[in-house]
Each structure stands twice: as C-alpha cells, then as structure tokens.
Amino acid sequence: AQSVAQPEDQVNVAEGNPLTVKCTYSVSGNPYLFWYVQYPNRGLQFLLKYITGDNLVKGSYGFEAEFNKSQTSFHLKKPSALVSDSALYFCAVRDRDNFNKFYFGSGTKLNVKP
Amino acid sequence: DTGVSQNPRHKITKRGQNVTFRCDPISEHNRLYWYRQTLGQGPEFLTYFQNEAQLEKSRLLSDRFSAERPKGSFSTLEIQRTEQGDSAMYLCASSGDSNTEAFFGQGTRLTVV
Q1: What pLDDT, in 10s, does the model give residues A41-87?
Q2: Is A4 exposed, middle or buried (0-12, 13-18, 19+ CB in 10 A)?
Q3: Where would I find the beta strands (DSSP E) of chain B?
Q4: Residues 27 to 86 of B: which have CB under 8 A from any A CB?
Q5: How confident is the model at residue A97 (pLDDT cuts 50, 70, 90)?
Q6: I need a labelling partner for B112 at 20 to 30 A (CA). Which of A57, A60, A80, A88 fits?
Q7: What b/e string do you get for B27-58 counting C-beta neighbours within 10 Å, with b at 16 or more?
Q8: A71 versus B2: which is more confidently predicted?
Q9: Which residues of A touch B (CB under 8 A)?
Q10: Residue A29 banded pLDDT, cuts 50, 70, 90
Q11: B48 neighbourhood in chain A, CB within 8 Å
C-alpha cells in the first residue's frame, strides 16, 4: 500500500533562515511526488512535483525539493524563509500508472517568525 | 482557466438532513477527485471519476455518500442523513491528460449541528 509520512507536525524557523520540511514515502514502483501548500480555510495549492530526471526540482515561490530514491524521501526546502511562507504543507504521492488517487501526508505546519 | 470551483463554500446543516455539494473542474479536465479533510489531518481520498465513470470509491465512503459526474463535466457529492462526524472540509480536484498533478478547489466546509 502507498503511504506518505511527514514526521514533523510543526516546523519553526526565523525569517531569512533556510527551511526544510520532511517527507518520506512508501510506494510500490516509481512514484510521482508532489508538494502542496494550504492557507487557512483554503484549498490546496500546488507547489512542485518530481516526475523524473534531476533529483532537485524547483517550484513556486522559491521552493525546491530533493528526491532521494535510496532514502525514499522528498524533502521540501527554501534557502531563505519569509513570514508569508507560514502555512500548512502537504506531501503527496501518486503511482505513475494509476491515476485513481493521490496519497497525502498528515501535513506540517510551518511557522516563520520575524 | 478559472480554476476548480466549489459551491457552496460553507454549509451548516442539522443532523439528519441531506446536503449536496457541487464541483466544477477546470475546463477539459477529464479526471475529478473528491477528498475529505478534517482538522489537523491530510486529505483523505473519497472517490475518483474519469469522465463520467466513477472508477474508484474509498471504503470510507459509506452508503450515505454518493457522487455523480453526469456528462463528465461538473460533479456533485451528496451526503444523506448527515451525522456530526461528517463535519469536515470537502475538497474537489481535477486533472487533465497533460497534467501529472491535481488542481484543488477552495473546498466546501460542512458543519453538522
């Protein structure tokens, strides 16, 4: 069965510092991997995805993520955090050959303090 | 491209009443998903449509829940005889043949009192 784990419920970082939000996954086969962000009382907004190729993928708002196949991880990163980055972040996975569903982690609340 | 649209944004209903939510996907997106999200949790899969065909349903989806996508365009999610445990955010997402990712609507927040 596919599953996604986000081991940290909350990540606190000071503005201007680098941030990392962790994600590990367990899937059969080769997955597609995604990060989404959710602001209060809003839907999920797509940030970036890993399909194939370079293990470091870049996305919206200066975010990037590193795919590590051996560690089955897909950590979200940003070199310099902004207060406006404070939100809920979800990692998701989908089987390449199965469009039927995306599996989501439980989410990580990112707090960026001025 | 106006994005995925969900209506209503908020719904308060009394226990035992029926409710229906609507989702309008991005134009020409043939895949449509419904998810449920409770406070502090990630989205849980409910059901998936490819065009008008409902190809997968979660075991979470009791017989009080039904979803349709007539003509492969908009979709409706109906909950009959609502219970307090149905209180959640109901999210709709769509995807097309040229997408690997899904695009989400703003959600419908259901409160059952």
Answers
A1: 788 999 999 998 899 999 999 999 999 999 999 999 999 999 999 99
A2: buried
A3: 5-7, 10-13, 19-24, 31-37, 44-50, 53-57, 65-68, 75-79, 88-95, 103-104, 108-112
A4: 31, 33, 35, 40-45, 48, 50, 55-56
A5: confident
A6: A88
A7: eebbbbbbbbbeeeebbbbbbbbbeeeeebeb
A8: A71
A9: 4, 6, 32, 34, 36, 41-46, 49, 51, 90, 94, 99-107
A10: confident
A11: 99-101
Residue A44 and residue B91: Cβ atoms within 8 Å?
yes
How many contacts does A have with B, using Cβ atoms within 8 A? 60
Band (B93; pLDDT cuts 50, 70, 90): very high
Please state the rounded mean pLDDT for residues A17-22: 98
Q: How far A22 CA lies from chain B's nearest CA (Å)?
A: 15
Question: To the nearest whole angstrom, how far is the Cα of B51 from the nearest Cα of chain A?
Answer: 12
